[in-house]
Amino acid sequence: MLKQYSFEETAVQTFDDKTSLAMRTEDMQVFYGSNHAMFDANLAFPKNQITALIGASGSGKSTYLRSLNRMNDGIATVTGKIWYHGVNINEPGVNIYEIRRHIGMVFQRPNPFAKSIRENIVYALRANGVKKKAELEERIEQSLKGAALWDEVKDSLDKSALSLSGGQQQRLCIARSIAMAPDVLLLDEPCSALDPISTVKVEETLLELQKKYSIIIVTHNMQQASRISSQCAFFHLGHIMEYAPTGTMFSNPQIPVTQDYIAGSFG
Amino acid sequence: MEQTNSQLKNQDTKSHEWDTRLHHATKATHEDWIGRGISYFCIGIIILVVASMLWFITSKGIATFTQNHVSLWKFLSGTNWAPDQGQIGALPMILGSFAVTFAAAIVATPFALGTAIFMTEISPNRGRKFLQPVIELLVGIPSVVYGFIGLAVIVPFMRHVVGGSGFGIISATFVLFVMVLPTITSMTVDSLRAVPRFYKEASLALGATRWQTVSRVILRSATSGILTAIIFGMARAFGEALAVQMVIGNAAIMPKNLISPASTLTSQLTTGIGDTIDGTLPNNALWSLALILLLMSLFFNALVRFIAKRGQLKHER
Lengths: 267, 317
Prior knowledge:
The complex is a heterodimer.
Chain A: E1 11-12, E2 21-32, E3 35-46, E4 50-55, H1 61-68, E5 77-84, E6 87-88, H2 96-102, E7 103-106, H3 117-127, H4 133-146, H5 150-153, H6 166-178, E8 184-188, H7 196-209, E9 214-218, H8 222-228, E10 231-236, E11 239-245, H9 246-251, H10 256-263
Parallel strand pairs in A: 1-11, 4-9, 4-10, 7-8, 8-9
Antiparallel strand pairs in A: 2-3, 2-5, 5-6, 10-11
Helix pairs in contact in A: 3-4, 3-6, 4-6, 6-7
Chain B: H1 2-12, H2 16-23, H3 27-61, H4 63-66, H5 72-77, E1 81-82, E2 87-88, H6 91-122, H7 124-140, H8 143-162, H9 169-193, H10 197-205, H11 210-221, H12 223-239, H13 242-248, H14 265-272, H15 281-315
Antiparallel strand pairs in B: 1-2
Family (chain B): Belongs to the binding-protein-dependent transport system permease family. CysTW subfamily.
Transmembrane segments (chain B): 37-57, 90-113, 134-155, 161-184, 217-238, 285-308
Protein name (chain B): Phosphate transport system permease protein
């Protein structure tokens, strides 16, 4: 039996004006039909840092993440404001394709297309209007280097992406996302389908990428959150309970629900 | 230790009671036998029927060449069909069949693709609620009804618009278009629905538009299914007899253009089969037409299998 925790007792940090933010949400609610899945989500994400969203299954962390680049369009109703470069992108009339070019996403299950490695990245670039051959080649190399995959695949760019290992496929998906030069990268449990060796590779890649991109990552794995993130938000049953620098969150959680989750009492 | 082992051996001695219990057949075993017997029987009957049909059509179909000594080449390339006078050139019918089949497939495919994309990607709810039943209804309408509509509407329309009798390849194409459209559409819908959701998500998350996603990801990965759908449609068009017979004019002459009366393998078969005597050349010649139809449907089947296999290879790691 899961203990009842008060949703009133939360500890969510805010940032002062000096911190430059990649994006933030204000009173965001998500509904699946009549089912209220996300309550009053107020989170701000500092630039060039990795923010981890943790919580048990069904806590709403993936729902929250998918709302950030409007991937929930047509699936759920999202209300409230999502601020990005001073624009509320949760408004009608906002070009969702443009949003997704700037806020990229990598999914739980590696999902390269059944095309060659090169074609997978070219697809992303063509969708964004890059057509010149020289530029295409250059950006394929750049993005594969960025995802730490270049050395492993540079001689076999025309091989099917499906012939890669799971970890390589996931890094290809990351490469595909950063090929569009986004400034925010959303990752939805990118390592949950990977073995530990591939996981280390992806984590190292992310730590390197935060120099250029702001990263928001949903993870099931608290150790992973503590290894790579600077900020950490804890979700519980559709509520954001605690948001703090990762070190503080794990050494000194403020409220009972976080303490219990980190101690492993549930989840 | 020694003692323990010998004790265990004692326990292994066969007990008569358990021996019978574990060996005798129960009701469950009998049910197994009966069930297996019934299904083997059914399979046997079906294999027998199919094999004897193949043998029957083949032996009758080659009689033209073995008994009546018509050369195969003359049969396939001759343009004069007058079995009474010993002239059996089947080329006009072969051409007629291929013409209406390809024309119908070419006209129907874009419409079927458009409808299928609408039903799966643009408006899945309305697609499932309204279009699905409509398409299923179209599949179920008997071909004589299509032929009748063709005869009553399309033939007079063609006569009015382009002149001539109104019977011809183009009228047959129109009728077949309506008949193969639901086949191609419903199979295309199935193959579009089978495209993994995560392909679509991956594409949208990269900032691709819905149109880019449909044209470059969804259609691309459903290609083998769509080709299969088209071939099934063509097989249906190739084998359709009644509706075609009612609108094509049934003149066993080389089709000069799309609006002059022509005939197909099937229409010639249904027109001629009642007027011939078993064992004579005119009768054997019709069996040869049937043999061509049989070989073509085997060919369509083989093509579908080949495409399915290649599609599978593409998705394997």
